[in-house]
Design a protein that fits this description.
With 137 residues, the protein is an alpha/beta fold. The protein is built from four helices and four strands; from the N terminus they run E-H-E-H-H-E-E-H. A four-stranded parallel sheet has the order 2-1-3-4, with helices on one face.
Length: 137
């Protein structure tokens, strides 16, 4: 098991919010955090508007695939962040649970997804400062 903190992002379809959050955390944490994402009812593919919005900031999520939420994914994570799926995430003692209230980008164009993307980035930046600050050398 890794000594890095691990984060699981969960939304219903694992096609928009959780994919963008996982990509931001992977991109911004520089390998200091183990990142997972999953959905309680995974979609067929990642939301094209989310792919486009992330591409605009230089992050490619086009190869990502929605994954089903498993008990093991929760057990293996230190922090579980839900985004609109509420109590579908199994709860285990000793885990930290956060719920980020974010608009669902499903069915929306890239213009509507951009502010969601930017809000997720700000939340992820705050999370990184808390769980994996850069070492003071």
């Amino acid at each position: 098991m890794s000594d890095k903190p691990s984060v699981l992002f969960v939304c219903v379809h694992n096609a928009g919010r959780s994919q963008m959050a996982a990509a931001w955390l992977t991109h911004l944490a520089g390998g200091r955090v183990e990142v997972r994402s999953a959905g309680s009812d995974p979609g067929a593919g990642v939301n094209p508007a989310a792919v486009e919005a992330m591409a605009e900031v230089g992050i490619d999520i086009s190869a990502e695939v929605p994954k089903i939420l498993t008990v093991d994914a929760v057990k293996e994570s230190d922090v579980c962040i839900t985004m609109g799926c509420g109590d579908t995430c199994p709860v285990f003692p000793g885990k930290r649970y956060l719920d980020w209230q974010l608009e669902d980008p499903a069915g929306q164009g890239v213009e509507a997804v951009r502010p969601i993307r930017d809000e997720i980035k700000a939340l992820v930046e705050g999370l990184i400062k808390e769980i994996a600050p850069e070492s003071q050398a």
